Amino acid sequence: MGEFELLARDGLARIGRFSTPHGPIETPALLPVVHPDLARQPVHPKELRSRFGLGAVITSSYIIWRTPPLREIAEEKGVHGLIDFDGPVMTDSGAFQQHAYGHVEVTHEQILHFQGRIGTDIATVLDIFVEPDAPREDAARGVAETTARATKARADRAGLLAVPVQGGLDPELRRESAAAASMTGDVLAVGGVVPLMERYRFADLARVLIAARPGLAPEGVVHLFGTGHPMTFAFASLFGVDLFDSSAYLKFARRGTLMFPEGSISIDSIQERVCRCMLCAEVPLTEVAGLPGSERERRIAEHNLLVCSEEMGRVRQAIRDGTLWELAERRSTGHPALAAGLRAAIRGTRIFLPTEPESRRTLRSTVATTGLRPSVIRFLARLDGFKQGRGPYRTLPFVPLTTVALRTLPAQTRDGATLDWEVLRPVGAVPIELADVYPAGCYLAPDEFDARPRAGGFGEALEGLAVDRERDWSPEWTRRQVDALIAWRYGPAAATALRAANLLGRRSPKTGRLRRVERDGVILFHVGTDGLVRPTWRGAQLLHATLPSPASRVVVDADAVPFVREGRSLFSRFVIGGDLTLVPGASALLVDKDDTLLAVGRLLLAPGEMGRLKRGVAVRVIGHERGEEAEEPDEDVAADPGAL
Amino acid sequence: MGEFELLARDGLARIGRFSTPHGPIETPALLPVVHPDLARQPVHPKELRSRFGLGAVITSSYIIWRTPPLREIAEEKGVHGLIDFDGPVMTDSGAFQQHAYGHVEVTHEQILHFQGRIGTDIATVLDIFVEPDAPREDAARGVAETTARATKARADRAGLLAVPVQGGLDPELRRESAAAASMTGDVLAVGGVVPLMERYRFADLARVLIAARPGLAPEGVVHLFGTGHPMTFAFASLFGVDLFDSSAYLKFARRGTLMFPEGSISIDSIQERVCRCMLCAEVPLTEVAGLPGSERERRIAEHNLLVCSEEMGRVRQAIRDGTLWELAERRSTGHPALAAGLRAAIRGTRIFLPTEPESRRTLRSTVATTGLRPSVIRFLARLDGFKQGRGPYRTLPFVPLTTVALRTLPAQTRDGATLDWEVLRPVGAVPIELADVYPAGCYLAPDEFDARPRAGGFGEALEGLAVDRERDWSPEWTRRQVDALIAWRYGPAAATALRAANLLGRRSPKTGRLRRVERDGVILFHVGTDGLVRPTWRGAQLLHATLPSPASRVVVDADAVPFVREGRSLFSRFVIGGDLTLVPGASALLVDKDDTLLAVGRLLLAPGEMGRLKRGVAVRVIGHERGEEAEEPDEDVAADPGAL
């Protein structure tokens, strides 16, 4: 079975490394479709890599098989020799041709063996293409037959195998097909979706990906057949698509169409210098339009490839920055059909929650659905629980986020009576103690950048409150906030238990924000710019004594215990259990199987992925007996409007 | 006075040609700030033009004046010699330095004369910089003094003059200042806005531009001081900014910041190949980050320039395509502050209405404010009037736009009783006869790309209606639609009058859409893909006999009458009057001062601009005694989801 190492993530997207016999594929990746007859391929595979940074390709084993001269070369020199390329090559099996022409003259066993014989890196099972709107029984038959073929193929092939996921628009069938493919495939290739993309049915595409998700194994590499338009990359990546393949760059070029992340446009309508890419520096698009046919087509194809490659770079950067939702939202403004797709994504929140990181840098409201992102939904659901048994809460009128005073609103009124307060955030009314917590604390919405005086605005609220900084930051108020933040993260029982521990909150003298929690001069928790408490090694010891197992635990295999104790990262394959409610980015107590505390760390993987991904780090160790990472710098990112 | 020729438009943005002694400036244009000491200028002005397509620059006459070695060269060889550039050069006057340092050692007369002496193409009046939040009396004093200086400057200078528009956030003062500047300036330079942009107060920036607009002369070229961030270009262009200037490309480079249309990002955070521009083909951004200081700074500055130039190209292309609102909406997703700016723009609808074209190709709903664009507001306002005295209307449940049947929904129910119908469009309930009219007929919203079955959807509606194509397209129903379309465009009186004229509607056999209106085999009106009737020469004769002057008229100066009769375009300077309710894109009857019909044409300018712009075409002649342009092709753009 193939090996996939996860390096960074956002949404369900994964920057990772997928090993193949001809080297790794860095995901997410676009595999351009290469014609096996290089005479019909306008851009040489080596150029795809050297000029466009596209290091892996896909070609059709079926076309090779049915074309004797190509077949002869491929059988002699292998598919890599045939297309003169020494990087990873995936081969398709002719299922789409079978679907389009009604039959192929090859059996699924024949084409699988043939793929092996020509030395493909990733062979694809010849599946049954199911149209999105196929009757359920047809779809079910297609799924069953595909699964049967995949089972046989797995038994026959030692190398990497791509198994299609079919099922049309039937959610149950898609999930079943995904689960079956996960048993046999290294690459889980969601198929039958080209008709959806051709008709701009992105909402249905989202539904397909949502339905398949619970069946897809985390160690599988998810491929989406036939998605080559850059406007879909951010969107599909968000849904966990690791590999894209497409001949769209070429098909669009043939009809003179330029692809951009914002949509397509005919080259003949370009009148201005809209692009300054390395190709346009040679021949601007306005001149390409007038070139002779084949030259024009080749240049448009190259331009499309470059745009695709650049957009994939942006997707990768957004994953690293934790801004993939923002990018997908931005791309959704390219066409109403994409906005419809994003709305469908929002309805599939549950598939995102297990791997949704504990926090991000900011949450910027850019489109109407921003307020329904998984991180917001999770926050609100948690808030409901948090509020149980507390109150009464009063709601303040809207106050601008960037006002430092807001962050330290007093717990007392002018007459000294203690009250509970809530602040109105773009996420709704939030207890004042949680005002800095992600996403409430860093949610930037348009209103905050509009300086118009608001009826019942902050000035008015302040007037009634007689803010007194000294009193705002009183030990009593700080204690109360510490208590709330611990309750938020570890539950009311833990907060009650730790209340006796004589904790002392420390604020930033500059911003007034809570920065750490100490006891007897020893730091137990840092408070991040995301407003969340995170234990140090000493704090972890306290938590370990307070929280019953398995809460906040990740259990380490005996083989790795000595390494983790010394502060080395915990690798995925050494995880044997843990708290399933943890999410990436969260702090965890690393324990051995007897619940002895080894270290404290932060999750890169979700618990459901640990142990299943064979390579890579599951938990990065932050603190242990003999060492500790430094505190986060005291900067107030959310308050800086210039931090674009 | 300077001459500005308008070539294409969208929103208040104008592709135009502004003549200067050193050649024309093609608007909208970014004028990079060039340091007059070329040793301190990392990109040579000639390179700005040759490599980045930025053909005009701005430099500081004040820095030249106060730096003897530079001053000496400038006085000897002129400013063009000093900066080694033979294209258009605008000079700034030191007002910002005066504001920042409290004083400059030069009077406004001195610096104006100095600018003339060194041969600047556009001299700027030394104005009083007014902070956005300055007290009103200070702002008023600043405006009054600026106006006084400008009046003197105009008397002293024959060449092109830029007159700043000040007034802080006071709408009244901004309008007054704009009106005063319009009396004296060729370039109307909105100033005092840098503090707004630095603090992301784009909503206030929008308010400033809205307030100034009624005072700005259409023949003036509008400049916005200090806007050099590409994320603002689409937004500010929409508000009619023709010229941008900025040193931001350089200032950002100094602190290692890359500018993109989506915002700024530190070069040190770039980990992926997010850009494939011609510069990144040489040295990718990931490597630029590691270069030595000055090399790094120069390369970032160049990258910023390239991105700015590319974005300006996109703005220009969007103006030509009539999609500038879409581009601005898309850019508003870069930061919530920009979304706040767009909301403020929406509140200023009135400034957009006089030049808002009669129709566009499509209206795509991409963000929440799409439904509040000026074209929608105008449609709805007109609809209110149209509905007076008609009805009763019934409202159908939502039906997808792309369904051809919808466009031809019957005027009869199964039992034969005639009813009035409305269809629900994204713009609201619309009488069925107007279902194809822009924007109701081509408004693409996300819902239409979501195939989920909807309660009360189209199928259900159809069931109750017993659609019968033969009957749908009955002569009676067609007559009724013709009647409605004429009433929509020319009012109920005209419709009543033309009802006697025995008009015959013709539909496209392919789409069922109304395509033209005939009488006795002669075409009187074409019906565009925007659903609007537009007269041929014969139709114009009928309208001329029906509509009382000045309705739908543009009155031609006697000197141009013979040319217009022959089908030549009507130039702006030959317009002497007309119907002030006409808008760009509308059909008009061209008449002489005795109301003799000369030709029928389509407006490029708004009536308020005609005669004031000294160069360029006001009305393109479409039909006249001896000739006629061909009909639009019968294509149904809105129904093609692939038309991105």
Regarding quaternary structure, what we see is homodimer
Structural class of chain A: alpha/beta
Helix content of chain A: 25-40%
Rounded to an integer in angstroms, the radius of gyration calculated over CA atoms of chain A is 28 Å
CATH topology of the largest domain in chain A: TIM Barrel
DSSP strand (E) fraction of chain A? 15-25%
Through-space gap between termini of chain A: 42 Å
Shape, principal axes of CA atoms of chain A: globular
Q: Tally of extended strands of chain A? A: 29
Model description:
- The structure is a homodimer of 644-residue chains.
- Chain A folds into three domains: 4-351, TIM Barrel; 370-471, no CATH class; 490-638, Archaeosine Trna-guanine Transglycosylase, Chain: A, domain 4 (Roll), CATH 2.30.130.10.
- In chain A, the strands form seven sheets. An eight-stranded parallel β-sheet of chain A has the order 6-5-4-11-10-9-8-7. In chain A, strands 23, 24, 25, 26, 27, 28 and 29 form a seven-stranded mixed β-sheet that branches. Chain A has a four-stranded antiparallel β-sheet with strand order 19-20-21-22.
- The first copy, chain A, is α/β, with parallel strands linked by helices and 644 residues long.
- In chain A, a hairpin with a 6-residue loop joins β2 (13-18) and β3.
- Chain A contains 25 helices and 29 strands.
- The longest helix of chain A is centred in the middle third of the chain and has 29 residues, at 293-321.
- In chain A, α9 (202-212) packs parallel to α16.
- Helices cover 37% and strands 20% of the residues of chain A.
- The interface between A and B is large, with 67 and 66 residues.
